[in-house]
Amino acid sequence: MAGLCWSLPPGAARPDCLYVWVGPEGSSGQQVLQLTHSACEWLSYDPAEAGAGAVRRGLADETRRLHKRRNFVVEKARAANIVGLLVGTLGSAGFLDVISALRRLAAAAGKKTYTFLMGKPNPAKLGNFPEVDVFVLVADAQGLILDSRDYLAPLVTPWEAAVALSGRHLDPEDYRMELTDVLAFEREQEARRAAEAGGGSGGMALQALGGLEGLSLATRGSANGREVIARNAAEYLALKRTFKGLEMPATGASPKAPELAREGLDGRAGVYRNERATEAEAAAAADDGRAAAAAW
């Protein structure tokens, strides 16, 4: 976890081990490790603090608050209608497979998905998409944003999104952060649905849903009854968005008449060519003025 892995003694399970954190209390590394091993017994020691009070038993207070926050955002993801997939990595192995798996899980849950590639996310960037109910940051454990209180819509991890889209609740004793865990989770869900359906229809249903990915179905009246129309995701987003920029009547400004394109500035950004000509004309006019004043 968090880019670190270790081997347990033969015959030992994770809950049977004592985990010791040596470092500052409340650091991001401690939060990630305690979040993924919350069912284990923990000891935390800060070398910067002196005395017996530097050793603390159990989970850190910040980790406990983070547990409650993660449960809250998972419930928000379960109730979301539009899910945004944020591509937070282009170098992690299997990130494209994880994005495809999340799309299939969202389609099976009847939710719309949009994929965003915008570099490092921040509240200002994501605030431009108020229609999205929840964002899924597809990144490795070191690049995840666990504290998203400043964002308009909550950010969840790929594992949390997979759990929410399958209709399950977050299990603190089985919390994962690796991208490969999402693929294994999807295979488990497919096997479970296939077993419930009797074997052959589960995979065919998923393939049918995958073919309709990105489409919005609507109905309207027609001469022969009702007609089904497939609208793409971009059209749906454009129709749903209420704010489309400032309009002339709202600002009070008079509309400008259309005009033909004209030649712009040319040259370096420091001094453009037409600016050089203007400066030369101004200098010549100043010289003429000084000459006239001297002659007078």
UniProtKB/TrEMBL annotation:
GO terms for molecular function: 2-(3-amino-3-carboxypropyl)histidine synthase activity; iron-sulfur cluster binding; metal ion binding. It comes from the Eukaryota. Keywords: Iron, Iron-sulfur, Metal-binding. InterPro entries: DPH1/DPH2, DPH1/DPH2_3. GO terms for biological process: protein histidyl modification to diphthamide. Pathway: Protein modification; peptidyl-diphthamide biosynthesis. Its cofactor is [4Fe-4S] cluster. Belongs to the DPH1/DPH2 family. DPH2 subfamily. This is Uncharacterized protein. It comes from Gonium pectorale (Green alga).
